[in-house]
Design brief:
Structural class: alpha/beta
Number of strands: 14
Largest sheet: 10 strands, mixed
CATH topology of the largest domain: Spore Coat Polysaccharide Biosynthesis Protein SpsA, Chain A
Order of helices and strands: EHEHEHEEHEEEEEEEHEHHHHHE
Strand content: 15-25%
Distance between the termini: 23 Å
CATH superfamily of the largest domain: Spore Coat Polysaccharide Biosynthesis Protein SpsA, Chain A
Radius of gyration: 19 Å
Length: 304
């Protein structure tokens, strides 16, 4: 049977990690390896990992991508799954992932992360459009609220994703000290370029209890650095043919995170101050990525 590892990047959230590991180590069809990727010096989290008898990969570089790379490098499995330390996987998670990868055309599998506020499920309007990139470079996520049948997508969400190690590569040229927003786009494009399918199954769920992020990229109130980094990463992760179109979209139309002229007009009418404040940093990050477009995004491969 194909071996499957679960990799959990974590930093300074020992209590959340304990909850995560309790679920991960109680599977009806257990993971072959569970690896917690930790920042050097995070002794409380090391103690938690040891209490559960799982492996620890230590990394000195900040950022979730460095932790993910360290976790994959420490693994010996053909399949590698990822989740966050503030998530809880169901008892059937490992078994369902193995069954999905029985199809040799599948390069990655993921599903919904059902959001919780404390112990209460967050009200969520379900969407059928998930994990899509439009022809003008707009990215539609909605992984947390997808519904419908399993189907191919352009990218999976990190908290609930798994890949064939031989097809996986993680970007090393993105910005950010913590969550490094939108890295999943680059990963998805890489796997699809290898001729494999990314499968999103809304019934494959994890509980996601979003914890406070460390660094600039705060969920509710990101600062200008985080806004710049997010816009840069999104554009930089797109296929090169879409990057110029993305710039035009951001400048002329845009959305809540990267408001263009039309979206800014709507925000002014609605007096959406938070949207208006995003303009300068999101435009600057988008243009910076466009200037870098001729240099391929650096990717760390695991097939060699």
């Amino acid at each position: 049977m194909t071996r499957l590892a679960l990799i959990i990047p974590s930093y300074a959230r020992a209590n959340d990690l304990a909850t995560c590991l309790h679920a991960a180590t109680n599977q009806t069809d257990p993971f072959d390896e569970i690896i917690v990727a930790l920042r050097a010096g995070d002794e409380p989290s090391v103690r938690v990992a040891r209490e559960f008898g799982v492996r620890v990969a230590t990394v000195s570089e900040p950022g979730v991508l460095a932790a993910m790379i360290a976790g994959v490098q420490a693994s010996t499995c053909e399949l590698v799954a990822f989740t966050d330390d503030d998530a809880v996987v169901p008892p059937t998670h490992a078994g369902r992932l193995r069954r999905a990868f029985a199809d040799s055309t599948i390069g990655g599998v993921g599903g919904r992360d059902c959001l919780f506020d404390g112990d209460v499920p967050r009200p969520t309007a379900l969407q059928s459009e998930v994990g899509r990139i439009t022809r003008y470079g707009r990215v539609i996520g909605n992984h947390h609220c997808g519904t419908g049948a399993p189907r191919p997508v352009a990218m999976l969400k990190g908290v609930n994703s798994a890949y064939r190690r031989s097809l996986l590569a993680l970007p090393t040229g993105l910005r950010g000290q913590g969550a490094q927003a939108h890295f999943e786009i680059a990963v998805g494009q890489w796997v699809r370029q290898q001729g494999a399918t990314l499968l999103y199954d809304p019934s494959l769920t994890v509980e996601h209890h979003p914890a406070t992020r460390l660094g600039d990229d705060q969920r509710e109130a990101p600062n200008e650095t985080a806004l710049f980094d997010s816009a840069y990463n999104l554009t930089r992760s797109l296929p090169q043919r879409l990057q110029s179109r993305r710039v035009l979209y951001v400048l002329l139309v845009g959305d809540t995170n990267c408001p263009g002229l039309i979206r800014l007009g709507v925000a002014a009418i609605r007096r959406e101050g938070s949207v208006l404040l995003r303009r300068r940093s999101s435009w600057a990050g988008t243009l910076a990525a466009w200037r870098d477009r001729h240099q391929p995004l650096a990717m760390h491969r695991f097939s060699e």
